[in-house]
Specification:
The chain is about 0% helix and about 45% strand. The protein is mainly β. The N terminus is likely disordered.
Length: about 375
């Protein structure tokens, strides 16, 4: 899929012993106008709004969701973002949807890097993204990055967009009911900051620990996502609530091609479910010829919120022969991972229906 995707640390300053902080590289509060942001797309317009999280104004993007017609708020960057560590802003959408935040490098030679943030309906949420959360867009039609890494000093543009447009015409090849989102919609942005303060760029082999407060997952089907404390996993976790339908599946997905798992033997995960569930855990990898191959592992969740702690070797994932391209390796190569997804197949396997919640705790690579 080709797409265009803080708390500030206080530092000791001066001989007086006062506390100081580095000023943001970019700060847009929209109190004096759009501050260079524009709408891009058919019937798309960016302007200021009195519906604000802080202050008296925010940026509002009015747009239309239609198949193959991306719409976004775009801001050209004319100054160097060298030293950038984090992007932080407040976000609200008029429907529950994944939102892409994109940094675009100078072309030719540079790529486009995207991070995902889940946005619930009509609720302001803080989007807090470290530079390590951004993954290279590596589809066949995406710009090629010569050095394969995000270079903040080469960023020429920023964009924020609703990803529902990609589901308007998606063909997933599986029995899943996708949300039917079309027509006119609205997205608000407030207090947008790019800062030089944040966590270390090296996140190690942590796929997701859900500590940042920003969910970087997308549902495959109609579901509600949130971060919870005190989950059955006995950790901070993501809770995915949905209604099973007989003969159908439902899941959730995360991009992981920004995470270095090349030297890991596998991943650890803790999961729980309200109802018993056969959950297909899938790793998608890029093949030598740039195609995608999927590798599956079944998690059996007992239900009744009973947590399952699992240590899974990459060797235990089996190639999905039904969709594998000819050059797909028989086993997972962790150096070429693209996405991780979980799919509740119980509705298809047992024709069961009804509400369910799955909790996913920390996911970490191990050596």
């Amino acid at each position: 899929m080709a797409i265009f995707f803080v708390p500030l640390i206080l530092l000791l300053g001066g001989a007086c012993g006062c506390l100081a902080q580095k000023p943001p590289l970019i700060r847009h509060d929209f109190e004096t106008g759009e501050q260079g942001w524009v709408g891009m797309g058919v019937n798309t317009k960016a302007q200021t709004s009195q519906d604000a999280h802080g202050g008296k104004a925010s940026l509002v993007l009015n747009y239309q969701i239609a198949a193959k017609q991306p719409a976004m708020a775009v801001r050209p960057v004319s100054t160097s973002l060298a030293g950038m560590k984090r992007i932080r802003f407040w976000l609200k959408t008029d429907h529950a949807t994944p939102v892409a935040v994109v940094m675009s490098e100078t072309k030719p030679g540079g790529g486009d890097y995207t991070a995902i943030a889940w946005s619930p309906k009509n609720a302001w949420r803080l989007v807090d993204l470290a530079i390590s959360d951004f993954a290279l867009n590596d589809g066949p039609n995406d710009a090629k990055d010569e050095d394969g890494k995000l270079d903040p000093d080469k960023v020429q543009g920023l964009a924020v967009m609703d990803l529902s447009v990609f589901f308007a015409s998606a063909e997933l090849g599986m029995p899943v009911q996708l949300p039917k989102v079309t027509g006119e919609h609205t997205l608000w942005i407030d207090d947008f900051e790019v800062t030089a303060e944040g966590p270390p760029e090296d996140r190690g082999a942590r796929v997701d620990t859900f500590e940042s407060g920003t969910l970087q997952w997308m549902p495959i089907g109609v579901a509600s996502l949130q971060i919870v404390d005190g989950a059955p996993t006995e950790t901070r976790a993501m809770a995915v609530s949905y209604r099973r339908a007989a003969g159908q599946v439902l899941g959730f997905l995360r991009r992981i091609n920004n995470i270095d798992l090349a030297t890991s033997m596998g991943i650890t995960v803790v999961a729980a479910s309200e109802q018993n569930a056969t959950v297909i855990m899938t790793l998608e990898c890029r093949t030598p010829k740039g195609k995608q191959a999927r590798y599956n592992y079944n998690l059996e969740l007992a239900g009744n919120r009973e947590p399952l702690h699992k240590r899974i070797r990459f060797l235990d994932f089996e190639l999905d022969g039904n969709s594998a391209p000819p050059d797909a390796p028989s086993r997972v190569d962790p150096a070429f991972l693209r996405t991780l997804s979980f799919l509740d197949a119980q509705g298809m396997l047992s024709q069961s229906a009804g509400p369910n919640t799955i909790w996913i705790g920390p996911i970490v690579g191990y050596k």
